[in-house]
């Protein structure tokens, strides 16, 4: 990445080069094309083996300029701040397309669509993510009414496709577990390790349990948080309630939870 307005100041972004999502063939991992969408700040890097690594530029690291004299392609856009470096970018979940990738391009609607051209094939893709969270180095994306994809951002294991066999309205994940739910049921999954589980390869997950869901749910390590009547229930991966955090009914119902939560110390009162 070069900043031509700062005497060529530069830094490097490194797509995953190892792990189950990569090939040992160095030539196959070579970057063959890139594309950038200014509206969303997403940079796509295509490789010869068909993998596309994605980066998103942090909005806080950019500033808006309307300086006259900029060329038509840059006028009114988002310009790099003077202190921008590699930490201004976040790696997000990528995807795989046909091998022999030669060209990628975002569509007229920005990052919602993309086209890819290989040696013998071409593909048109649309962003179908219904829900997307990134935490603990893991991205979990709801890609259809019942399908969820869990992917390690460092490419250390193959993406896992969890087919929940139910309509999924919410999903959350930690480094080793995944949770999906709808208005009636919730399901938990655990990373199975190499060569086993849903999704295959060493990106596989195994189903742990199914249990009654709630309006709002979240995970932290091996704990599931669920909304109850005037309380937050702290549950095991099997949905067994092991603690409850009560609150006043006058506070009203809550519709989402945020984790991680610091465990209560001995003798400390709930607040």
For the record, the count of structural domains works out to: 2
Q: How does the overall form come out from the CA principal axes? A: elongated
Name the helix and strand elements from N-terminus to C-terminus, one letter apiece: EEHEEEEEEEEEEEEEEEEEEEEE
Structural Rg: 22 Å
Total beta strands? 23
Strand order within the widest beta sheet: 3-4-5-8
Supply the number of helical segments.
Answer: 1
Distinctive features:
single chain; 271 residues; mainly beta; Lipocalin; 2 domains; four-stranded antiparallel sheet; 23 strands; 1% helix; 45% strand; elongated
Describe the fold and architecture.
The protein is mainly β. It has 2 domains: about 1-125, no CATH class; about 130-270, Lipocalin (Beta Barrel). About 0% of the residues lie in helices and about 45% in strands. The model is unreliable at about 65-80, about 195-200 and about 260-265 (pLDDT under 50).
């Amino acid at each position: 990445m070069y900043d031509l307005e700062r005497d060529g100041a530069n830094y490097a972004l490194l797509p995953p080069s190892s792990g189950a999502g990569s090939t040992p063939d160095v030539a196959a991992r070579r970057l063959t094309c890139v594309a950038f969408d200014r509206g969303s700040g997403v940079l796509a890097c295509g490789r010869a083996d068909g993998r596309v690594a994605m980066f998103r530029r942090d909005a806080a690291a950019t500033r808006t300029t309307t300086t006259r004299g900029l060329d038509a392609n840059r006028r009114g856009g988002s310009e790099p701040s003077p202190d921008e470096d590699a930490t201004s970018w976040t790696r997000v979940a990528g995807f795989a397309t046909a091998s022999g990738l030669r060209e990628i391009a975002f569509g007229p609607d920005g990052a919602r669509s993309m086209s890819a051209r290989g040696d013998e094939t071409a593909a048109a893709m649309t962003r179908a993510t219904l829900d997307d969270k990134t935490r603990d180095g893991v991205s979990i994306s709801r890609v259809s009414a019942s399908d969820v994809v869990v992917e390690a951002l460092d490419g250390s294991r193959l993406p896992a496709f969890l087919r929940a066999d139910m309509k999924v309205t919410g999903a959350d994940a930690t480094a080793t577990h995944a949770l999906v739910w709808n208005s009636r049921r919730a399901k938990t999954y655990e990373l199975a390790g190499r060569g086993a589980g849903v999704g295959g390869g060493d990106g596989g997950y195994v189903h742990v349990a199914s249990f009654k869901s709630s309006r709002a749910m979240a995970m932290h390590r091996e704990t599931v948080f669920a909304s109850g009547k005037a309380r937050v229930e702290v549950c095991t991966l099997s949905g067994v309630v092991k603690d409850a955090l009560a609150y006043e009914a006058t506070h009203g119902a809550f519709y989402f939870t945020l984790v991680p939560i610091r465990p209560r110390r001995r003798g400390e009162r709930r607040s």
